[in-house]
Amino acid sequence: MERRDFLKIFSIGTVAAMSGQIAHRTVGKPGSAPLAGGYLEDVNTSTQELASSIEYMSTPAPRAADFLRAFTGEIMPEDTPILATTASPNRELYLDKYLAKMADYENAHLEDVYLEHERYPVLISTFKRLDRVQNLVGHGNFNVVSFDEMLKYGSRYSSVGEFTQIEINFLEELFFANARHYGFLGDKVITEISAPVPERDRKKVDRTGHFLYRGKSEALYSQLQKDLGRSIVLTSGIRSVVKQSHLFLAKTIQSKGNLSQASRSLAPPGHSYHGIGDFDVGKVGFGRKNFTEAFATTDEFKRLVDLGYVDIRYPRANMFGVRYEPWHIKVV
Ligand SMILES: [Zn+2]
What we know:
Largest sheet: 3 strands, antiparallel
Distance between the termini: 26 Å
Strand order of the largest sheet: 3-4-5
Radius of gyration: 20 Å
Strand content: 5-15%
Bound molecules: zinc ion
Helix content: 25-40%
């Protein structure tokens, strides 16, 4: 697939471009109220909030100032390692702001980067079409749908409908965008948008609706179950580019177009280690609290730590632009 120019789509302003008056205003609406259960891991769990966010985003264009994109290139130079040891006058300032923002990851912040308002319709139509693919193939199978398979489902099934060129371009732009522009600092782990999850390489895990890669991931999970017993369960395994895109679009809608806010709690497409072997576990019966910090208070989590399973991908105060995720098991 052709690589597209991120800037055409996610245009970015600078703080310097903001007038004094505007600079004191909050950019965009304050973040949406946290979901009842905390974190949105799967869009299936937040239909109601998504519906109201979609409604909000479908209303007439808000004042331009509400959607000023203010990326502080000055404070966080694009290609500068954030924790570079060389002294920088901006480093401390950046760190303070960064940590404050991550502690309050669920809300909008001044420097946050928003999707252009003109892009809301395609954001919503793409999300809804992906939703229809998910309904067609089922939640479990949707985890491993590749980009090409997604397109085929669109053209073959009228219940989904063909992906429009604008929707395809949008998904490509999102995938090829430099996520650093909106504040996500983790690695890109999948570089091919059409990367498949071959059947021979994956295994569906009974009673979970999720898949694991054969080999290391599968072995680690079965060892973990042997050690911890049946009170621990896989809550999210392999996530294809398509699955991650669907989750990220849902999160972007939930964040009212705020890409930075979305990426503070969910890795953008191509950046999730779920694409290459990591997985999430939870306590049986703990529901959506498994995706909140409450998981770190459970006996299951303590045992995971004691047994040495927990090498946290996104620890507290990490520098990847992602909040703390105690439930995520690092495999890769
Ligand atoms: Zn995870």
